[in-house]
Design goal:
The complex is a heterodimer of chains A (140) and B (142).
Chain A lengths: L1 H19 L4 H8 L8 H19 L21 H17 L3 H6 L5 H25 L4
Helix pairs in contact in A: 2-4
Chain B lengths: L1 H26 L5 H9 L7 H13 L19 H17 L4 H10 L3 H24 L4
The chains are: A mainly alpha (140), B mainly alpha (142).
């Protein structure tokens, strides 16, 4: 059952990313490009996505997930070096090409060779994160 | 055209949020693309391997039947291969160090008013904006 939910959720996520236009890198870079031809679409996507999620978080109170277990506990509001360094790196890469992990997966079937190369490089980066975290950010 | 773009953007956003709501309420997990994929890459998600694979399969496969409905679906990814590799490495490394990306910190974090999610989102949007200024306007590499 958990796998079926994950498949349904992943499918909705992929379809949402396609119809929202967020797999088009010019729309993402256009939103980040405040000094160019600014494209507001991403703000509407974020706003649209936050509404069902906020309702979902409200529904988690005093309840359990349908398939059992427990809801993810709120993590301590700690902003460590890893969060800052990681978010800066992510943002620079996101602005450079206009892809983040979700759209990189969703556009795999129609994103051409560039999309495939990006995904492979992203996977390499994820793999590299384990030793990098251990060596560069041992305290945080 | 622009008007249509934001309507589709909002509609797509609702579907993305619904995806996250289903994953949270039924499976009790946060829908973060970098976390779900990253757990498959570095082995940290071996206890939920099939669940992660099923999610990734859905993301990759579900758009395929819809693509022909569009006259053109173009991701407009740059032809600069060096930029693609560099960006991919930074996105992969950065999202794992930060424990989240646009879906995990952005959609799921902000909707929960998570301080970490909000801080991360502000930082990566600012870094993204500066990145566009640097690489597009100043250096002209993309």
């Amino acid at each position: 059952m958990r796998n079926l939910t994950a498949l349904i959720s992943g499918s909705l996520f992929g379809i949402g990313l396609l119809i929202s236009g967020m797999t088009d890198t010019t729309k993402v870079q256009g939103w980040l490009d405040i000094f160019g031809q600014w494209d507001p679409t991403l703000a509407f996507v974020m706003g649209g996505a936050i509404i069902p999620m906020a309702i979902a978080w409200a529904l988690t109170r005093n309840r359990q997930p349908v398939l059992g277990g427990s809801f993810p506990a709120a993590v301590k509001p700690r902003v460590g070096h890893d969060l800052i360094v990681g978010s800066v790196l992510f943002g620079v890469g996101w602005g450079l090409v206009g892809l983040c992990p979700g759209p990189a997966l969703a556009s795999l079937s129609y994103g051409g060779i560039g999309g495939i190369v990006f995904l492979l490089a992203m996977i390499a980066g994820m793999w590299a994160a384990v030793p990098v975290r251990a060596r560069l950010l041992p305290a945080s | 055209m622009i008007e249509q773009d934001w309507i589709w953007g909002f509609a797509g956003g609702l579907v993305i949020g619904l995806a996250g709501a289903v994953y949270l309420l039924v499976n009790g997990r946060i829908m973060g693309a970098s976390g779900i994929l990253g757990g498959l890459i570095d082995g940290s998600g071996r206890n939920s391997l099939m669940e992660r694979l099923a999610f990734v399969a859905g993301v990759v496969l579900a758009p395929i039947p819809l693509v022909p409905l569009y006259q053109t679906v173009d991701t407009h990814v740059t032809g600069n291969l060096a930029a693609i590799v560099a960006a991919g490495l930074m996105v992969g490394l950065g999202t794992r160090l930060a424990n989240g990306c646009t879906s995990g910190h952005g959609v799921c974090g902000i909707s929960r008013l998570s301080p970490r999610g909000i801080v991360a989102t502000i930082i990566y949007i600012m870094a993204g904006g500066l990145s566009v200024i640097l690489f597009k306007h100043l250096l002209g590499v993309v």
